[in-house]
Amino acid sequence: MGRIAILGGTGPEGIGLGLRFALAGEEVVVGSRAADRAEAAATDMRAKLAGVGCSTSVTGADNASAIDGADIVAVAFPYSGVGDLLPGLAPKLAGKIVLDVINPLIRVKKVFVLEPVAEGSVAEKIQALLPESFVVGAFKNESAEELVEIGHPAEGDVVVCGDHADAKAVVMELIARVKNYRAVDAGALANARFTEGITAMLLNINRRYKAVTSIRILGLDGH
Amino acid sequence: MGRIAILGGTGPEGIGLGLRFALAGEEVVVGSRAADRAEAAATDMRAKLAGVGCSTSVTGADNASAIDGADIVAVAFPYSGVGDLLPGLAPKLAGKIVLDVINPLIRVKKVFVLEPVAEGSVAEKIQALLPESFVVGAFKNESAEELVEIGHPAEGDVVVCGDHADAKAVVMELIARVKNYRAVDAGALANARFTEGITAMLLNINRRYKAVTSIRILGLDGH
User: Which of A130, A212, B3, B136 lies 20 to 30 angstroms, CA to CA, from A73?
Assistant: First the structure.
């Protein structure tokens, strides 16, 4: 498919996604505010991938440089970084597919809830900040804990939403290449508020059952 | 288990739930604003159940009378009825388990979204209106279309939330008695906002795939 940049890619979710994409044969560029941190993460990832016989290219760069030549740019930093980081990168992200995997999670006492987002969801906020980009929301419900365990197959459905059909199709094709994942098209980008909510719910279920859960959509047989 | 009243039980969701509860051996009382409409629905339900050899008691009554003697009172009317109907019934519902299955769905252009609920979710709003009752949110994601087709087994997980552990345990036991359903405890009642959102998402998926979908929580093996 090509090259995937993962901005804020040194956190567990970014690393987990990068590993899965590399296993699917995609070239990965880890982005970070500091190029040396990105390169350190990429080095660790290459070692982990080599352990399972995968030699796909994984490199590190500062966030802005990581975007160069990328076909898909995933954003995987904490929600607090959205407003800080993206406006400055907007010109470089114009015309690109931006894959948003961010959840606006906060914990109130022992319950995970969503931080209110005026635009309705992180995905819609990012689309508002990047009007020239094609934002697709996906991988909101896939836990970093599971993604990084590359010895275990991924499990569950990846619910995808977006307002740009071509960009969504590219992301769904990418998901289909990640072993064991199925992409489910939930329609418009506004559905991201529901997929972000699912993450909060799953975390509350995880806490109660001491488990790492994911979701599957039943009833789609034949699709 | 006992007797279950379903207020606003003449709509498709109420009828579907009533049929499934009756199949599980629970006595069902269908409630409606008009007793004759409730009795007509109950008559239809008895005929449908007789067709599969089930003779569980299903009767009809006005909403207030339906509450008498019920161990669980489900509320299944449209969201618009919550503020109209429940305050007047609050004294009769005091001390009872109130099973909320309502979603605040609206459709904006072709996309299902949630009507904003100041309390965060319908379940929390109902708890605020009925402070002396034990509100449990469940069956938010089970489509009426699927529930009424009693020839087909139910499919998927029923996510349950509530702030009263004993009431939640009773509802989870009820769910376990409905064939093929599994109850998943999502924790506090505040999680109802997420389960209500899942319904909107599933409806958007249904529209896109021309399907009737439900969800399963993966990763709970052993529970």
Answer: A212
Name all domains of chain B by residue range, CATH numbers in brackets. 3-209 (3.40.50.720)
CB atoms A201 and B194 under 8 Å: yes
Q: What is the pLDDT of residue A154?
A: 81
CB nearest B205 (choices: A207, A214, A217): A217
Best of B216, B221, B223 to substitute, by most chain A Cβ atoms within 10 angstroms, is B216
**Residue count of chain B:** 223
Pairing of strands A58-62, A27-32: parallel
- Determine which of A216, A221, A223 to mutate to test the interface with B (most B C-beta atoms within 10 Å): A216
- C-alpha closest to that of A124 among A98, A95, A159: A98
Query: Mind telling me how many Å the CA of B18 is from chain A's nearest CA?
Result: 22
What does pLDDT average to in each consecutive run of 10 residues of chain A (223 residues)? Answer: 93 97 97 97 98 97 97 97 96 98 95 96 98 98 93 91 98 95 97 98 97 96 69
The SS3 of residue A195 is helix
State the nearest Cα–Cα gap between B19 and chain A, in angstroms: 21
Amino acid type, B133: S
CB B98, CB B73: distance < 8 Å: yes
Residue of B nearest to A198 (CA): B194
Average pLDDT value over all residues in chain B: 96
What pTM was estimated for this model as a whole?
0.96
Sheet order of strands, A134-137 included:
A58-62, A27-32, A3-7, A72-75, A97-100, A134-137, A157-162, A182-185
Write the ipTM.
0.95
Helix (H) or strand (E) holding A182: strand A182-185
Please provide the DSSP assignment of A50-93 as one string.
HTTT----EEEEEHHHHHTT-SEEEE-S-GGGHHHHHHHHHHHH
Token digits of residue A196: 């972000």
Please name the residues in contact with B176: beta carbons below 8 A apart, sequence gap of 6 or more: B182, B183
Pairwise CB contact (< 8 Å): A219 & B214: yes
Owner of token pair 């109802």? B192
pLDDT band at B57, cuts 50/70/90?
very high
Beta strands in chain B (DSSP E): 3-7, 27-32, 58-62, 72-75, 97-100, 105-108, 111-114, 134-137, 157-162, 182-187, 214-218
Kindly report the three-state secondary structure assignment for every residue of B110-147. CEEEECCCCCCCHHHHHHHHCCCCEEEECCCCCCHHHH
